[in-house]
């Protein structure tokens, strides 16, 4: 029999498969031998055979049965303790043994590049995660969120957009239905070629008699380095520095529900945008590390914004729950006050937060795009994290906030859920 290697798909991106792994590379490397396929994920190995079996790399390394290195050659007793295994243990290669089809060979990234050998029947007998429900990490497939105003506002739509309105009632025009679908399913919509009139774009999302959400910056933010139209501009958004992933205004009791960023002028260099579905990231974290998820839902964080003429603070967890539903994510590294937790809680807090941060900061989990003049992105500030790269030259975006209920009323989708 021959072992064959294939390409695997994750979040819309096809990734090449090689015979070697780095700690963070090739998360979905799939290899087949007979009917059993191997998938090497970030923290665990999956065997697809009669359903799927998941094994953490630490567990696999700890349960290497080789002699004389890991088991005593006379007594068969274990010779290594799990504390001796580095937390960064990962496979350099994973493959079925061509001479013994039911045998799995794993070469590790430790100093010795130790090779472990496992019989598939032994693994199944000791499996602790058989057919565990899979939660996908956040998507990076830009086609899920992007529409062209000049096309979707016409009298016809492509086949995939021509379904009835999700509310089951009058779906309104094509553009509103396309926006509503993406906001509801993905938390964000990227609209190309809406035009340069911000006030006209606002009316797409404001019911009669309603206005945008006013903040301490004013009614509309002119996000540019030479701003003269707003107050309280002594913050990162009005500089040309990179701003990493965050939600807006977690330091007030009720942050604005949605934000629009409307491009007037793109930078000569840089200034690209990144967005991450933080709710999906939270659910993914819960599926792979429940204690870390629970820490982020229960340990309060002090968010504090202090400017020359404005100050506000709020103490809330990163992830706020409503029953089993993630209600809101507050995430803003640059408005966190010093953490003040008990000594015996602090290490767990940092480990939990950093694990969530690694998920959302992974480019494989991010929508990445560049706004051109006339484009805008509209996103749920309770669900999505947004960021931008540093830039050179003039860059001008207009930022506007909305109330959830106003937008969904305008889009005929009912109240926010």
Write a structural description.
With 417 residues, this protein is of the alpha+beta class. The chain is built from nine helices and 26 strands. It has helices spanning 57-62, 120-125, 149-152, 174-186, 198-202, 278-288, 290-298, 346-361, 404-410, and strands at 4-6, 8-10, 13-15, 29-33, 36-40, 44-48, 52-56, 91-97, 100-108, 115-119, 146-148, 188-192, 221-223, 243-246, 258-265, 269-270, 273-277, 301-307, 310-316, 319-322, 325-329, 367-369, 376-380, 384-388, 391-392, 396-402. The strands form eight sheets. Strands 11-12-23-15-26-13 form a six-stranded mixed β-sheet. A hairpin with a 3-residue loop joins strand 5 and strand 6. Helix 6 crosses helix 8 and helix 7 (290-298) crosses helix 8. Mean pLDDT is 87; it is low at 1-28 and 155-172.
Question: What does this entry show, briefly?
Answer:
The protein has 417 residues and is an alpha+beta fold. The protein contains nine helices and 26 strands.
Radius of gyration: 25 Å
The helix tally amounts to 9
Approximate strand percentage: 25-35%
- The main sheet orders its strands as 11-12-23-15-26-13
Describe the biggest sheet?
6 strands, mixed
- Fraction of helical residues: 10-25%
Question: What do the pLDDT scores average to?
Answer: 87
- The coarse silhouette is elongated
Q: What is the first-to-last residue Cα distance?
A: 53 Å
Number of strands: 26
- Extract low-pLDDT stretches: 1-28, 155-172
Instruction: Decide which structural class fits the backbone.
Output: alpha+beta
């Amino acid at each position: 029999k021959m072992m064959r290697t294939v390409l695997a798909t994750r979040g819309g991106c096809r990734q090449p498969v090689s015979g070697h792994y780095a700690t963070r590379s090739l998360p979905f490397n799939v290899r087949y031998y007979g009917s059993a396929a191997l998938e090497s994920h970030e923290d665990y190995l999956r065997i697809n055979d009669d359903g799927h079996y998941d094994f953490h790399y630490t567990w696999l390394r700890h349960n290497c049965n080789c002699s004389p290195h890991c088991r005593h050659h006379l007594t068969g007793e274990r010779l290594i303790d799990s504390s001796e295994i580095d937390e960064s243990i990962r496979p350099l290669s994973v493959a079925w043994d061509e001479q013994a089809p039911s045998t799995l060979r794993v070469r590790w990234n430790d100093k010795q590049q130790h090779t472990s050998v496992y019989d598939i029947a032994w693994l199944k007998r000791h499996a602790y995660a058989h057919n565990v429900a899979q939660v996908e990490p956040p998507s990076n497939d830009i086609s899920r969120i992007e529409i062209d105003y000049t096309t979707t506002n016409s009298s016809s739509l492509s086949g995939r957009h021509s379904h009835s309105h999700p509310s089951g009632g009058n779906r309104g025009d094509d553009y509103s239905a396309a926006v509503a679908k993406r906001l509801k399913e993905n938390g964000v919509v990227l609209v190309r070629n809406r035009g340069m009139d911000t006030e006209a774009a606002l009316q797409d999302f404001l019911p009669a008699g309603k206005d945008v959400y006013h903040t301490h910056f004013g009614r509309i933010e002119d996000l540019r380095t030479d701003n003269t139209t707003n107050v309280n501009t002594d913050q990162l958004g009005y500089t040309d520095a990179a701003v990493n992933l965050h939600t807006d205004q977690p330091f007030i009791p009720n942050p604005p529900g949605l934000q629009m960023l409307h491009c007037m002028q793109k930078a000569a260099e840089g200034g690209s945008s990144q967005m991450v579905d933080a709710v999906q990231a939270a659910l993914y974290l819960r599926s792979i590390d429940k204690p870390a998820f629970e820490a982020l839902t229960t340990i309060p964080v002090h968010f504090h914004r202090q400017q020359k003429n404005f100050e506000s603070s709020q103490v809330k967890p990163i992830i706020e729950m409503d029953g089993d539903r993630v209600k809101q994510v507050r995430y803003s590294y640059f408005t966190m006050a010093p953490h003040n937790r008990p000594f015996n809680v602090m290490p767990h807090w940092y480990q939990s937060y950093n694990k969530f941060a690694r998920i959302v900061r992974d480019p494989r989990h991010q929508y990445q795009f560049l706004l051109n003049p006339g484009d805008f992105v509209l996103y749920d500030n309770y669900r999505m994290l947004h960021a931008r790269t540093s830039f050179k030259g003039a860059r001008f975006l207009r930022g506007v906030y909305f109330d959830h209920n106003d937008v969904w009323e305008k889009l005929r989708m009912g109240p926010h859920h």
